[in-house]
């Protein structure tokens, strides 16, 4: 499988990169950095440090993309600690970002291999919206686009109605859903249903005592502590990593449905909300007809086993 990951690298984004880099049969061909979780340059450093931790320094190019959403004002949320890595204090990676802009790298790489490359978009969709606006043919040239974003029930993680990635740049998300890509969406709703590891699962990962399980333990420290404060128990959710797992091994998807997806760009209360209609009701919006497949459920045990294998390497 040939893969590109677009990421606002912090916390869970890193584990998705690791899963892609450490699963046999997957070639992570490029990483593109988008505005989102924390300071933009810090996100690039986090991606480079993750590549180094995987032992692939110099082998996975990292491209810098859009530093801001298309229209929205956005200050990084620092949900994963100020560095996005739970203060893991990782050594500065030897590899440096490429000179080419991420948007141009995406276009060049996708157009050079029509029908061969799949992409995981696990950040706000600014880079992809710019790329498909500059070169609309990438929508059909990309084999498949796996998007982490939105909610399937309107219960968001940033506002009551909106999930983070679509909330940060709803205009970009709306452009991407209109562009004609072959899209599967892994929502925040799915994250809550299938991506959480409980204390026993986390203990099993920690007990691997490999360099990658140690990396995981350090970088997931803040979300674990936040969960303990909020819910009284240690858990960790993995929205981006589950999206990557579904892309790598779609057999872990237990249920999915076709849908018509539109993103609210104007609402005072609902900005960033994802309307995910059953496809047959989408006839009112013909230009969006069947523009996505929504994952409704995934196998948490199989997902965990994929990460356990990856971190054992
Ligand atoms: C998304 O927001 C980010 O904080 C995570 O990396 C994930 O991509 C979840 O809403
Ligand atoms: Ca992310």
Characterize the structure shown.
This is Nucleoside hydrolase. One of its GO terms (biological process) is purine nucleoside catabolic process. One of its GO terms (molecular function) is purine nucleosidase activity. Keywords: Glycosidase, Hydrolase. This protein is an alpha/beta fold. It has 13 helices and 9 strands. A 9-stranded mixed beta sheet has the order 3-2-1-4-5-6-9-7-8, with helices on both faces. The structure holds beta-D-ribofuranose and calcium ion. Beta-D-ribofuranose binds next to helix 1, helix 6 and helix 12.
Search tags:
single chain; 313 residues; alpha/beta; Inosine-uridine Nucleoside N-ribohydrolase, Chain A; 9-stranded mixed sheet; 9 strands; 39% helix; globular; binds beta-D-ribofuranose; binds calcium ion
Query: What is the highest CATH level, the class?
Result: Alpha Beta
Residue share in helix: 25-40%
Instruction: Look at the structure and name the CATH superfamily.
Output: Ribonucleoside hydrolase-like
Number of strand segments: 9
| Overall radius of gyration | 18 Å
Give the overall pLDDT as a whole number: 95
Could you tell me the CATH topology label: Inosine-uridine Nucleoside N-ribohydrolase, Chain A
Overall 3D shape: globular
Largest sheet: 9 strands, mixed
Structural class: alpha/beta
Strand order in space, largest sheet: 3-2-1-4-5-6-9-7-8
The kinds of small molecule bound in this structure are: beta-D-ribofuranose, calcium ion
What's the structural domain tally? 1
Distance between the termini: 19 Å
Low-confidence blocks of residues: none
Architecture (CATH level 2) name: Alpha-Beta Complex
Q: Helical region count?
A: 13
Keywords: Glycosidase, Hydrolase
Pfam families: IU_nuc_hydro (PF01156)
Protein name: Nucleoside hydrolase
InterPro entries: Inosine/uridine_hydrolase_dom, IUNH, Ribo_hydro-like
């Amino acid at each position: 499988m040939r893969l590109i990951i677009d990421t606002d690298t912090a916390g869970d984004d890193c584990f998705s990169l690791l899963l892609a880099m450490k699963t046999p049969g997957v070639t992570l061909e490029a990483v593109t950095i988008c505005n989102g979780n924390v300071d933009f340059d810090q996100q690039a450093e986090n991606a480079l440090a993750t590549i180094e931790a995987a032992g692939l320094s110099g082998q996975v190019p990292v491209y810098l993309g859009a530093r801001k959403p298309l229209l929205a004002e956005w200050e990084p949320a620092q949900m994963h600690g100020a560095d996005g890595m739970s203060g893991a204090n990782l050594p500065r990676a030897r590899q440096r970002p490429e000179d080419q802009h991420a948007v141009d790298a995406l276009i060049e790489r996708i157009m050079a291999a029509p029908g061969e490359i799949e992409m995981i978009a696990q950040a706000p969709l600014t880079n992809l919206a710019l790329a498909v606006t500059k070169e609309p043919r990438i929508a059909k040239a990309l084999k498949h686009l796996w998007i982490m974003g939105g909610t399937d029930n309107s219960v968001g993680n940033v506002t009551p109605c909106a999930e983070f990635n679509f909330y940060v740049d709803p205009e970009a998300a709306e452009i991407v859903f209109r562009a004609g890509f072959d899209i599967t969406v892994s929502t925040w709703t799915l994250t809550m249903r299938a991506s959480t590891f409980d204390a026993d699962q986390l203990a099993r990962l920690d007990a691997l005592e490999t360099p990658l399980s140690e990396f995981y333990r350090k970088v997931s420290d803040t979300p674990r502590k936040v969960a303990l404060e909020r819910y009284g128990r240690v858990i960790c959710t993995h929205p981006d990593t589950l999206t990557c797992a579904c892309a790598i091994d779609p057999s872990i998807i237990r249920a999915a449905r076709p849908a018509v997806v539109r993103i609210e760009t104007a609402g005072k209360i609902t900005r960033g909300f994802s309307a995910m209609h059953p496809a047959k009701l989408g006839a009112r919006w013909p230009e969006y007809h069947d523009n996505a497949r929504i994952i409704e459920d995934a196998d948490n045990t199989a997902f965990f086993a994929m990460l356990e294998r990856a971190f054992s390497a």
